[in-house]
Design goal:
Length: about 250
């Protein structure tokens, strides 16, 4: 994923000099300019260890930042919250988080974020997609982008899962249904209806799938729209999930 994202980065000084040399002097002079280009190359730090899994907790209506990660004691807006020191010098938390304060060497706190969006609904959309909400398009959330760019770890299982209410969640946005997250309403119950009933064995299940495909063939051919294809792909993904031995 890092390699693919790097292709969209701004040109480096090395690339600029290479382009300038080709334009001004032609290709033949490039071997002699190699030392110059090498000297101008930026020092790129090795990427951090790539995480295999990410748990993204979105606290819709959580505690205020001035009571948790950005306390402002002694100010008019600071309220009754006091600041406590953490394991990181110069970084304090609200006094409501004494246990978390001991783990701050494992966390990163961003206090520089600003936004022009004050309405909650639009702000939630912005935080989930990095885009302002507009009526003509729906943007993908982080999990869908990760699946789209980096692929799945398991071809039969969804690349991401949404736990809790998916109401107004952007999901895969304008991306294909193949990268859509699997909704889990209740984490204690898990995915519902993932096991076939006893009377429906694998042979009969496959027979029904072929029958459905025959019924739908003419319709899909006549109405080969994005929405129809997305529904077909979503259905196929559901069948793959049901038949996965890793479920």
């Amino acid at each position: 994923m890092l390699t693919q994202l790097a292709r969209t980065a701004e040109p480096t000084r090395r690339r600029f000099l290479e382009s300038l040399a080709r334009t001004a002097f032609g290709v033949s002079i490039l071997p002699y300019a190699e030392s110059l280009l090498a000297a101008s190359a930026p020092v790129v730090a090795a990427p951090a260890v790539k995480a295999e899994h990410v748990i993204y907790l979105f606290m819709n209506g959580a505690m205020s930042h001035i009571d948790t990660f950005d306390p402002k004691p002694g100010t008019e807006s600071g309220g009754e919250t006091t600041a406590i020191q953490t394991g990181v010098p110069g970084l304090s938390l609200g006094n409501h988080l004494p246990l978390l304060a001991k783990q701050m060497n494992r966390l990163a706190v961003i206090r520089s974020m600003t936004t022009e969006t004050a309405a909650h609904q639009q702000a939630v959309y912005l935080m989930r997609t990095s885009y302002k909400e507009i009526g003509s398009i729906r943007h993908p959330f982080m999990g869908a982008w990760l699946t789209e760019v980096d692929g799945r770890k398991n071809k039969d299982l969804p690349g991401s899962v949404i736990i809790g209410s998916a109401n107004r969640h952007p999901g895969q946005g304008y991306l294909s249904a193949e990268v859509a997250p699997a909704p889990v309403a209740d984490p204690k119950s898990g995915l519902q209806n993932i096991k076939s009933p006893k009377y429906l064995d694998e042979r009969n299940f496959d027979k029904r799938q072929r029958l459905i495909s025959r019924f739908e063939a003419d319709f899909r051919k006549k109405y080969a729209t994005t929405e129809v294809n997305a529904y077909r792909d979503f259905y196929r993904e559901a069948v793959k999930l049901l038949q996965s031995p890793d479920l």
